[in-house]
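Q: Here's a chain of 151 amino acids. Please give me its 3D structure as tokens.
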Amino acid sequence: MKTVLSMLLTAVLIVSMATLAAADGKRNRSQNVVPQACAPVLSAPSFIVEGTVTAVSSPDARNGITVLANDAAIAFYGLGPARYWDTLGIDRPEVGDFVTIEAKAVTVNEAVMNIIVSLAYEDGTSIQLRDQATGCALWREFSRAPRNGSN
């Protein structure tokens, strides 16, 4: 009887430890999801473009802008939500603005998307949109912060 009880307790202990180890593994994976998702941005080649904004898309159209630089229209994506810009007190780009953009040429499903890392205006005002260390969008951390009932 003691042997059966001892085996049963050992089995319960093993199952409990396995469950805890599995839960810890899930927690670690979920904590690393964002940096892994941002890895393509971080590893993509960087480039800088100066030009005039010729189009601004709506937020539901990937939050992008088109810039005319050296007679070529270049599409950029990843402006982020208006609330991020508003909180920093910086106006979003408008048609006619002259801007300098640091971007990453990210390949997604065999297509290249130019993701904005930072944007600067002629007057020197600038905004960082991606974390230099992780490639992740800075507004994602911002959106997790308490908003005191505001959007």
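Q: Can you summarize the key feature?
A: Residues 42-144 form a domain with the OB fold (Dihydrolipoamide Acetyltransferase, E2P) fold (CATH 2.40.50.140).
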